[in-house]
Design brief:
The chain has a single domain (2-100), classed as 2-Layer Sandwich (Alpha-Beta Plaits), CATH 3.30.70.100. The chain is 30% helix and 28% strand. It is built from three helices and four strands.
Length: 103
């Protein structure tokens, strides 16, 4: 199993509309990715490791797939539409990573 993660850095003055993200963007992702997407996890940053420290990321999204190929096949045809929706909820440049689930 692999995870496709999208992390939104918590920069000064950054905008992130969590309500839009949860009610519009993530459901759109789920619809477009279909059954290839085996699970979705959305996290909202609360704080850093030190008490009172700002969260490193405003939000994190983790999408689970059986394989890299399954992710690429599901995501590829919809990548442009998905990326065009980003300005509707954030002005942050997201960071993406594909990882292999080990445990």
């Amino acid at each position: 199993m692999i995870t496709f993660s999208v992390l939104y850095p918590n920069t000064d003055g950054s905008k992130f509309d969590m309500e839009y993200y949860l009610s519009k963007h993530v459901p759109m992702l789920q619809q477009k990715l279909g059954a290839a997407c085996k699970g979705v996890l959305v996290e909202a940053g609360l704080g850093g490791a030190e008490p009172g420290a700002r969260a490193t990321y405003i939000a994190m999204l983790h999408l689970h797939f059986d394989s890299v190929e399954a992710f690429q096949t599901a995501f590829g045809p919809h990548a442009q539409a998905i990326m065009e929706d980003v300005p509707n909820y954030t002005d942050v440049q997201p960071v993406a990573q594909v990882s292999e689930v080990k445990m």
